[in-house]
Amino acid sequence: MEHYMKLLVRALNNDKLALGKILTILETPSIESSRILKELISRSGKAHVIGVTGIPGSGKSTLISKIITAYRRRGLKVAVLAIDPTSPLSRGALMADRLRMQEHTIDPNVFIRSVASKGLKGGLSLAALGMIEAFDAAGYDKVIVETVGVGQADVDIMNIAHTIVVVTMPGVGDEIQALKAGVMEIGDIYVLNKSDKPEANQTLEHLSFALETGELGRKRLWKPKIVKTSAILGQGIEELVEVIEDHYEHITNSDEFKRKIKSRRRELLKLYVKYVIDTRVEETIDRLSDVVDKLIVESEDPYREIENLIIQNLKSV
Q1: To which H or E segment does residue 226 belong?
Q2: pLDDT per position as a tens digit, 185-220
């Protein structure tokens, strides 16, 4: 454990290699990772966490690359956590969104990491939440979390990020239908990316109407904003960053900033409890495999007996 603590000290002193190793440790729950996480949480709570979600194919990764450039011009340290779909075979990340951000990899004040969603519907795994705490503790000013982009179900980010940016684009079909539920209700800022397309104005009208009629956003003091961008052309990026900073100022002048940190850690704790229970269930099933086979063949009510066996073996959790 002493080795891990030395590694942690290096990571907290801007050693990117050490930080990368810490992130790798956090990917697999263990005694070491839980102790490291405890140390990280005691030092975190200052970073502005920005969640970027929205329609697949809307250009989130390219947009984030431009946002990184804008923040680096302001002298801020930026970390990006790209949540990718999980391979059913290797359990690793299938996509490498960071490939679209390669221009920043040599910057000592930018850290980009991909992490697998582990099959979770909202994409935010225990490892991902631990990595956010690591970036926060390591002194990154902005931690950008790019979600898996699965559509309307991708709303877990609202419990994690201080500022939620929802990215859409022109020409995705019935825009009004897309605004009615799920991911299109959670944004603090709505970005119409690829706004150089001919149908952009019509989509902008739909978004504006939805805001004015209250279809977008929760009841709150902050009124969601709409920003037009073209990440490929570099248009609207500075305006977007200004709006993000306006929201940051808004939440830091209230209890919202600290509330979101508590919410993030609550989600982390829930995922850890779930991991412990799921692991114990798997271990129990493995130990009881012979008994289970016998019950299926001989028992009048095998499901009830299996349930009782599992409950008995979970009492030690």
Answers
A1: strand 225-228
A2: 788 999 999 999 988 988 888 888 877 776 555 556
CB proximity list for 249: less than 8 A, separation 6 or greater: none
Kindly report the length of the chain.
Answer: 317
- Whole-model pTM: value is 0.85
DSSP string spanning 4-36?
A: HHHHHHHHTTT-HHHHHHHHHHHTS--HHHHHH
57, burial (CB in 10 Å: exposed 0-12, middle 13-18, buried 19+): exposed
| Phi, psi (deg, nearest 5) at residue 184 | -85, 15
Q: How far apart are the first and last CA of the chain?
A: 24
Q: What is the pLDDT of residues 30-42, one digit of tens each?
A: 888 999 999 999 9
Dihedral angle, C-alpha 193, 195, 196, 199, nearest 10 °: 130
